[in-house]
Amino acid sequence: MMKYVHTNLIAKDWRKLSDFYKTVFGCKPIGPQRDLRGQWLGDMTGIKDAHIEGEHLLLPGVSDNGPTLEIFSYPEIIDSDKAVNACGFAHIAFEVDDIENIMNLVAQEGGSVLGQVVSNDYGDFGIGTFVYVKDPEGNLIELQRWER
Q: 2 and 39 share a domain?
């Protein structure tokens, strides 16, 4: 068996970031909040005295079995710049009905807009409209709308 389970975001303030995704994208918390520590966690992460806190959020448009967005915080985190063209995971994407409204909500909730709203005709697939935004901690999010 193989199943995609979750995407993890490490947050400076997991509660604040989790609230952002709940408010802007309608994500729902599932399962208990996590407060994990112990030798097993240090062995798994390679971080001495590792301690993580956070929760899993059910993403909009998926079943109750996930996948989820896992938002965790460590007491000590490494800060890094994130860019659309950086190597590794770049962004998560949400299809929305009203890009302008969600862009405004992102900004209202502490995020920011990265680029301009653009549209492109993909032939039989439809016309896609896109923009990149950042959550309050700088993680990249692609907003998209399709006209078919």
A: yes
Q: CATH no. for residue 46?
A: 3.10.180.10
Verify that 72 and 87 share a domain, yes or no: no
Domain total in the chain:
2
- pTM, to two decimals: 0.90
Q: Is the pLDDT of residue 106 over 90?
A: yes
Per-residue pLDDT tens over the stretch 63-81: 998 899 999 999 988 877 7
Q: What is the pLDDT of residues 130-139, one digit of tens each?
A: 999 999 999 9
Cβ atoms within 10 Å of 102's Cβ, excluding its own: 20
Same domain for 67 and 90: no
